[in-house]
């Protein structure tokens, strides 16, 4: 049985200070770091025992996890397990990447976000090129606020053509984008209109809760990051009973890591094996 787990432990800190983020420059105490490490180690040990699964793990931390050696070690350990197909992580790409040399690289995935106010474009691009040269699958993206438009265009220009550059739509303000901006951003990311939509989801089939689950540091299972109701706990003996087909109870779903799991949108065909780290398996020119 295939299962993808979106893991989000207690970590809630970041080395960057983006104005649009609650974790900006937040620091944790030594006790909080120890708590996060214990939860992570418990999760990795549990994952190692699940040899009945074809497992994928996607780290979606509150903050930046890849700068922490414990997350680098967890990725290496997971990626080397025979029953683990993919280990991906959302990151600002400020961390070292040498740990990846201890992994089968095609099992890795980097969802790398560029934050123009926090690091020079050249430095971010250098890290992208390092990932590419090391053979680590990577998607690159930016939050599509007005202030980032020039940087988004420059990043597209500088990245190799085959690297997918996604733009996360700013959806907190209705009518935020002009038609011209939508056209410009769609020329860069052909899937931008899909991200710029809060997809009606109530009553619609969604694979989360069956083939994809969200797990926190205590092992609590939720079907996704956007439905708060727990459906089980991976540390209970009968945890697999939680895995059932369900429809969505929320009115809409507006985040890539959620709506990609609604089959009627057809995005499983677009992203295939690159679903978690957001790498389309269809050439970008064909998407456009
Ligand atoms: S890099 Fe990400 S986690 Fe860190 S402050 Fe910026 S948006 Fe938040
Ligand atoms: S459609 Fe979105 S909010 Fe609803 S269950 Fe799926 S991932 Fe969660």
TrEMBL record:
Keywords: Iron, Iron-sulfur, Metal-binding, S-adenosyl-L-methionine. SUPFAM superfamilies: Radical SAM enzymes (SSF102114). InterPro entries: Aldolase_TIM (IPR013785), Radical_SAM_PqqE_MftC-like (IPR050377), Radical_SAM_STM4011-like (IPR047771), rSAM (IPR007197), rSAM_sf (IPR058240). This is Radical SAM protein. It comes from Herpetosiphon gulosus.
């Amino acid at each position: 049985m295939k299962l993808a787990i979106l893991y989000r432990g207690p970590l809630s800190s970041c080395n960057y200070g983006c104005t649009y983020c609650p974790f900006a420059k937040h620091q944790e105490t030594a006790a909080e770091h120890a708590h996060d490490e214990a939860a992570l180690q418990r999760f990795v040990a549990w994952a190692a025992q699940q040899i009945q699964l074809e497992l994928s793990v996607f780290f979606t931390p509150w903050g930046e996890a890849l700068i922490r050696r414990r997350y680098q070690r967890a990725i290496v350990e997971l990626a080397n397990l025979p029953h683990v197909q993919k280990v991906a992580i959302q990151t600002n790409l400020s961390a070292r990447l040498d740990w990846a040399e201890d992994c089968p690289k095609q099992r890795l995935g980097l969802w790398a976000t560029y934050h123009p106010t926090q690091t020079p474009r050249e430095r971010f691009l250098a890290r992208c090129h390092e990932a590419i040269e090391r053979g680590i699958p990577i998607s690159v993206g930016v939050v599509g606020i007005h202030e980032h438009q020039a940087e988004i265009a420059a990043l597209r220009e500088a990245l190799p053509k085959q690297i997918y550059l996604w733009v996360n739509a700013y959806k907190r303000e209705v009518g935020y984008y002009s038609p011209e901006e939508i056209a410009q951003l769609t020329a860069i990311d052909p899937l931008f209109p899909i991200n710029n939509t809060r997809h009606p989801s109530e009553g619609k089939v969604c694979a989360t809760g069956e083939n994809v689950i969200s797990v926190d540091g205590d092992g609590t299972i939720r079907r996704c990051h956007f439905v708060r109701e727990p459906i089980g706990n991976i540390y209970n003996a009968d945890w697999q009973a939680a895995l059932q087909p369900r429809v969505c109870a929320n009115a809409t779903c507006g985040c890539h890591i959620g709506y990609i799991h609604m089959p009627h949108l057809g995005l499983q065909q677009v992203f295939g094996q690159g679903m978690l780290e957001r790498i389309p398996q269809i050439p970008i020119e064909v998407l456009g």
